TrEMBL record:
<keyword id="KW-0812">Transmembrane</keyword>
<feature type="domain" description="SbsA Ig-like">
    <location>
        <begin position="86"/>
        <end position="146"/>
    </location>
</feature>
<dbReference type="Pfam" id="PF13205">
    <property type="entry name" value="Big_5"/>
</dbReference>
<dbReference type="InterPro" id="IPR032812">
    <property type="entry name" value="SbsA_Ig"/>
</dbReference>
<keyword id="KW-1133">Transmembrane helix</keyword>
<feature type="transmembrane region" description="Helical">
    <location>
        <begin position="28"/>
        <end position="49"/>
    </location>
</feature>
<protein>
    <recommendedName>
        <fullName>SbsA Ig-like domain-containing protein</fullName>
    </recommendedName>
</protein>
<keyword id="KW-0732">Signal</keyword>
<keyword id="KW-0472">Membrane</keyword>
Amino acid sequence: MTRESAASPAAPASTDTARSDRLTGRRFTRLISVTIAVLVLLVAGLAAANFSQGPRLASAAINLDASVSRGNPRLLLTANLPLAEVAAGQVAVSPATEVSTSVSDRALTVEFAGILRYNTVYTVTVTDVAGTSQSATSTLEYEFTTPDVDIYALQRDRRMSDSGAKQPDTVRRTTLLGRGDGDVVFSASRIQQYVALEDHLAAVTLGDDDAATLEVVSFAGGDNVQVPLPGAGVVENLRASPSKYLIAYTFTSAPDSQGRRYDRTPFVYDLTEYSGLPVEVTGVDDLPMTVMDLVFVPDSTTLVVQNSGSSMFLVDLLGEAVLTPLGQHAELRDFVPGTRALVVADPNQGSTIDLADGAVTALDLKPSLLDESAYPGKVVLLNEQGRYARLFLQATTDINQLSSLIAVTDPDDSSVAFAPASESSSVRDFCVSPNGQYLAVETIPAAGLADEYPTLPAFSGMTTTLVDLDSGTSSRSVSGFLPDWCG
């Protein structure tokens, strides 16, 4: 009895537990089912959303420093999925810039024509972008700001110190957005000329006997490096390929030099060459060459030389140094900004030479508004569409004074881009910035005194004014002359 009475209450408890376990199992099954269903719906929703939204921008990349110094910079836009082809017409750039496009998987490359403007906010908008596996389209947009640029100028100083020594000449560096004349990066008693590289500066200095010395200065500090010259003489036509660490120049022996005599003989010096020795650039059949002018092809190790017979050649300095003939022309000018189109001039007409295939295209420039009223001077081609800047001298109310004017002309318009603040000031020279955005104009004040340097003489009180060719404004100027853009 006792055993039976103790066991009888256990049966209902066991039944309740089993029922509870069954209910819990059913709730868990329902929860799992609901969770799976929700996840399926979420995945389906996300897939539908992605399918309906079109591609999205995952990342973007551009070399900003190169965008304002080298032609045809590229912007890489990477999407979140593979892209269908994109035409250049789908791309809008502000400020307006011509572009081309290419697509590879998720990457869209936008290549800009020429070189971009300094200190400028660019907005790139690509419309109707589709993926390869869905029809929905979207708009990709990216904004970037191009950097400022260094500006160099040479200041010559005629003043004498209390001890009777001449005050040193200086090369100063500033920027477009900077103020004043900037910092001194090189000084010497008499600086004839200089060229700026990415991390160095090369300068020709003169001794008391006018003999030239060629020095290389590192911006990182350390001792100056003196480039060996064949002897006492004159260094001219100093040029640089900044990104390639190359400089070129011509050397002429002093009249009383012994041994071999050099006459405007071209040399090239590689700042990265361990020997530290310059190399002579020879002509046809490896014979010595006398050079009227020379210039580097932009961002390359190739040099264009014009010999004393006006024949022009292309020389790859780091290759086999084979001379490629470019024809005979009266004047070697420079390259169209942002291109490798070489500008040359002959007595009757100017031309461009495409260095890719050697094709020569005659220039057909529209008349300037000053052609009928002023004396024409130096001309600089600004683009391949025939836009150019030209210096004119125009009569004033003073019969003994001519005023300097620079006019910019394109196929549709012509206007005066620069005139000195005073009619008594005159323009000595001008050039265009590597990206074609600015004119750098050297002016001489009426009270300027000649410094009587034997090569590249200048005047006291000279200034260089920077003229924005798009806006026509000239809100920036620095003391000195020979901006590195004109080197």
